[in-house]
Each structure stands twice: as structure tokens, then as C-alpha cells.
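[Meeting: bench + compute handoff]

Bench side (C.D.) handed over the final construct sequence. Compute side (W.E.) agreed to return the predicted structure before the next meeting so the bench team could plan truncations. Sequence as handed over:
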Amino acid sequence: IRLSAPTAFGMVSWRRSWGVRALLDVRVAMLDGDERRDPYAGASAAGMRTWELGGDRSHHNATFRERFAPTTTAISADADLFSSGTSIRHHWKAGVEFSTARYIHQHRRNGGMSWRPASPERATFNPATPTTWVQSGIIPISTGGDIRLDADVDNGAIYLQDRVELGSRLSLLLGGRHAWWFGALRPQGDRAARLEAVRDRATEPRVGAIVDLTGNGRLVGKVHWGRYHQHLFAQFFVDRRRHRHGGRAPAARKRR
């Protein structure tokens, strides 16, 4: 195969502080890649893979050509505010996150089919001579196995949390997050409208406590409870069977 993988990525951040009581941080990141694995004999030439116990061998051309093209832009902003009283101190944190991405994954069989001659250990077998590929009057072939995924994915969230320090040994963590997800597939062919696959949102409360048991930070106890959702990403659309046995998109929830 011929491999090419041009990639561009970068991040810009801006930070502003107002003394020791307030801080604002804004970040923008992007990724644009296009990895291609092209066959050395062109997309129209069918490849050959032999059936062998020690591992198949390839002849004439690669079986598949592939393309992986992720494009992502992410924006986030968060603000920190510190306040203190006589015995209670607060660390407020609020923020917003948003990312939009497109992912193209192509895995296409060259020539529309692949030759799969059996028993290549025969003395008469020659990969360069098609007449030697015949056994029992047939030449086996393989077809299908193509992937043409073109998906759009959006993830967003807003959140607010407060770390309350009650003296020098006990801190309470109180917060909440509201997140939303969107996923769509771009059909192949002439159809222009996207097919909406996922649209969901959820609120995620989170609480916790930290106790300094010794007063010097050497032995600390922590307990947390919250609701969490995994971010949506385009590979969820590749094989639905995988999602039944593990990672479903936003519906996969964890508590701890």
C-alpha cells in the first residue's frame, strides 16, 4: 500500500486574572487529518489472498483501501472565583464546553471482490497463472466487508461547582453539569440530507467530601458520588453489535 497522512493540529488559549480572587481561561483547539492507505495496483484491480493455516498471503494487489479523516474543533471557557469568610472558604468554578467533529472512515474492497484460491501448497499453483487457481472446478472469491462511514458529532456541556472548605481539614464538593449530544450520518450517493442518529441531553449532579485525617495532608479520605455520561464519538456508528456488549453512547451511565 501507499500511505499518506497529512495532519494539522493546534491550540490557542487566553487567560485573564483579577488579582487572587478571579481567573478566566478560554481555549480553542482543532485537529484536521486525512490518512489514506491506497493500493499499489489501483482501486479497480482485485487482490488475491490464499487460504493457509500459517497465515494468508496476498498477491497482485491489496485487498482493501482505507481512509481515516477526522476533523475536530473544540472550544471551552471556565471561570474561577475565590471567596472567604471567617471560617468558610469557597472556590467557585463555572464553565462551558463545545466540540464539533466530522469523521470519515472508508474501508473498501479493491476491484469489488478478492480471489481466494484454496490449497496454494499444490505444486501446480502459481499466483501469476489464473488457470492454476482452479480446484474442483471453481475459484473461490470474497465480496463485501466495506465500510463507508461519514458522521457528524457534537458534544456540549455547561457546569457549575463549588469547593467549600470548612476549616483546615474538611472540604465539601458540590456541583452539577448539564450535557447534550448530537450525532448524524451523511448518506452516500445523491441524498443530501443528513440522517439523525442520536440527540440526547442529561443533567449530572455530583457531590463529594475530602477529609484530612492527620492535619498535615499525609493521610486523606475521599468520597464522591455522581452521575456521568460518556462523550459521543463517531466510531459508535461503525458496528451496532459492539454497543450491545459494552459502550453505548450517551445511554451508558456510571455511578460511583
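W.E. noted at the follow-up: Helices lie at 240-244. C.D. will use this when planning the next construct.
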